[in-house]
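Hi support team,

I submitted a single chain yesterday and got back a structure, but I'm not sure I'm reading the token output correctly. Could someone confirm the output below corresponds to the sequence I sent? I've pasted both exactly as they appear in my results page.

Thanks,
R.
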Amino acid sequence: MHQLFACAIGLAGVACAQTAAPSPKIALVNMQDAIVGTTDGRNAEKQLEEEFAPRKAKLDEQEKEIADLQAQLDKGDLNDEAKEKLGQDIDHKTLLFNLANENADGDLRTAQKKVLHLLAPKMIACITQYAKLKSYAMVFDIGDSDVPKLYPNAVDITQEVIAEYEKKNKH
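Hi R., thanks for writing in. Yes, this is the structure output for that exact sequence:
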């Protein structure tokens, strides 16, 4: 009886394997790279760099000033009182620098998100259209994930999507 049952299960497995549908086509896209790879994305990136360049220059200047003061302190040719005062000055300037740097980073992230919210819908529409055209069942954003490891047979369509976006938007 057990042999008959095992044989029936084995035959059912073979029948299922023979009638199983082909694996769905899976595509991968790095959404962030795709957006930045377009003319619109590069223009937005350039605009952000220009907008934040003065703040970056000021932060670079502050960082250099702190490094110069630290080098002066490290020389060791100051009396104890001067060392104490210079150390406090370095601590104060470092605190101000860190706050300004955090604010600048936050402002930059906010500006980048605004750009992303403007460009993402156009890119998503392009990806959707391309996926339908090429009969992809699923498209995964691989920006910060391990999806490629999960689907080794998936195809990265990032460059193709950039080209389609450029054609669609006449760049």
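A quick pointer for reading it: Helices lie at 2-19, 31-36, 39-75, 80-133, 147-150, 158-168. Let us know if anything else looks off.

Best,
Support desk
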